[in-house]
Design goal:
Blueprint lengths: L1 E4 L5 H7 L5 E4 L1 H9 L5 E5 H5 L4 E10 L6 E5 L8 E6 L4 H13 L3 E6 L4 H4 L5 E5 H8 L4 E5 H9 L4 E7 L6 H9 L4 H7 L6 H10 E2 L4 H15 L7
Parallel strand pairs: 1-2, 1-3, 6-7, 6-8
Antiparallel strand pairs: 3-10, 4-10, 4-11, 5-8, 5-9
Helix pairs in contact: 1-8, 4-7, 9-10
């Protein structure tokens, strides 16, 4: 059984795999736990959580973008970026908050990440001037009245000259991924179906643009980012995790 993250970004891959392999859709955090408990053979997990685990990297389906991501946003209601800021962060993110810390450290901005049980922009901004929104909630905030400070994926790419990678496939052991690889190649044929069947309030025109940014193939650039983050974690250079 293979685990796929239950967010919009994975829908085309899900439809490409449907009926070809047994699938479990859940959060990246829960998928990692199920792999560790042998409840899944493999699945897509947060890159940072993977790098802090003992799981094996399987060089197949992952979530990355060339630069601009759209579903990883630092937002506020009416403020611009300042120093000494507090940022509300959903507990569902590990990799994007990692990137945000790298970006702010690089920019010389002092900050504190405030973990929250909420995921949506409205609740995250109730008690803080800034919020990190990811996934479907970020897409809902993308063309709204919120002030987008920056796209995390774009800033990470600009500052570090690397592609932002958010999730990778992991397993406890070797995993035959031919079916997954074939589905990656076929996934572009399921973009329209993903847009039509989408049950969220994200506008179709946003989804069309978004699916042009999301990539699943494992390549040299993905490997570069994986190794970059791995080295930072090994050197214990990551602050405010």
């Amino acid at each position: 059984m293979y685990g796929i993250i239950n967010l919009i970004h994975s829908d085309p891959l899900f439809y490409a795999l449907n009926n070809k392999i047994e699938i479990k859709r859940d959060t990246a955090f829960n998928i990692l736990g199920m792999i560790e408990k042998d409840e899944l053979d493999a699945g897509m997990v947060s890159l940072v959580q993977f790098l802090n685990s003992d799981l094996k990297l399987i060089e197949t389906a992952n979530i990355h973008t060339l630069s601009n991501t759209m579903s990883t946003l630092l937002i506020s209601r009416n403020k611009h970026i300042e120093n000494n800021i507090e940022i509300a962060v959903t507990s569902l993110t590990a990799t994007t908050s990692f990137y945000l810390s790298l970006i702010l450290n690089k920019m010389g901005i002092k900050y504190e990440l405030i973990k929250s049980k909420y995921t949506d922009a409205q609740h995250l901004l109730n008690n803080n001037d800034y919020a990190l929104v990811i996934g479907d909630d970020a897409l809902l905030a993308y063309k709204s009245n919120y002030n987008i400070i920056f796209d995390i994926g774009y800033e990470f790419s600009r500052l570090f000259n690397l592609m932002p990678v958010y999730a990778v496939t992991a397993s406890k052991r070797d995993f035959d991924h031919k079916i997954i690889d074939n589905a990656i190649a076929e996934s572009k044929n399921y973009v329209e179906k993903s847009i039509i069947k989408n049950q969220t309030k994200v506008k179709k025109e946003i989804l069309k643009f978004y699916y042009n940014t999301i990539k699943y193939d494992y390549n040299f650039e993905v490997n570069e980012t994986v190794n970059f983050l791995k080295n930072i974690i090994l050197k214990n250079e990551y602050i405010n995790q």
